[in-house]
Amino acid sequence: MSRISMDYFNVVKETQDWISEFVIKLNICPFASPSFINGEIKYQVVDNTSDDFYQHFLRLILDLNKDNLFSNAFLILTEAIEFHEYLKLYHSSESLLKEAGADEQFQLASFHPAYLYDGLSFEDVANFRNRSPYPMIHILRVDEVENAILQHKDTLQIPVINSQKLRDLGEYEIKQLLNKIRR
Fold first, then answer.
1. Is-contact 23 29, C-beta < 8 A?
2. C-alpha 148 chain-centroid distance
């Protein structure tokens, strides 16, 4: 196995472990389990320093658009990128989604190892709701998100519940869990 494919495999495996052992096990996203268990998530690993990052992003949108085999996708960035630089990339991706006319079919979610919610200190463990092993853009189908919201009683409480759950768990326990996931 080449170094590139091994790195790809490790990045995808670590992402899958994070989804399984953190997002699903802690019920951070009550909608994550079905698509994960059914193998309906597409993973694309890219070098965010390459000039063709946006081509990878659009290709992934096109692949999802023509292939209903996958429910959603993660575009995983392998290179370290500072959080504010990542946000620029994320917002540009949102704009590109809109320019491509695909914003009514797909929406994006943002994840980064140093995710920081507005109004929270960096040390607040509530930030771990969106902290991930790698910078990632999660591409979701709008209709699936809308259906999940209809099935859940009060989606506005999910962030509140997650913040409290993570604060109750504490930084030490969260980091222990995440250290098991890291390879």
1. yes
2. 17
> Taking each helix axis from N to C terminus, what angle separates 171-181 and 3-18, rounded to the nearest 10 degrees?
140
- Alpha-helical (H) ranges within 19-82 are 32-37, 53-66
- Give the length of the chain: 183
Q: Tokens for 139? A: 């591409």
At residue 37, the 3 state secondary structure works out as helix
Q: Which domain holds residue 32?
A: 3-181
106-111 sheet: strands from edge to edge:
41-46, 72-77, 136-141, 106-111
pLDDT 10s digits, 76-111: 998 889 999 999 999 999 999 999 999 999 999 999
Exposed e or buried b per residue across 63-90, where buried means at least 16 C-beta atoms within 10 angstroms of its C-beta? ebeeeeebbbbbbbbbeebeeeebbebb
HEC per residue, 93-158: HHHHHHHCCCCCCEEEEEECCCCCCCCCCCCCHHHHHCCCCCCEEEEEEHHHHHHHHHHCCCHHHH
Number of domains making up the chain = 1
When computed from its CA atoms, the radius of gyration of the chain, rounded to whole angstroms, is: 16
Whether pTM exceeds 0.85: yes
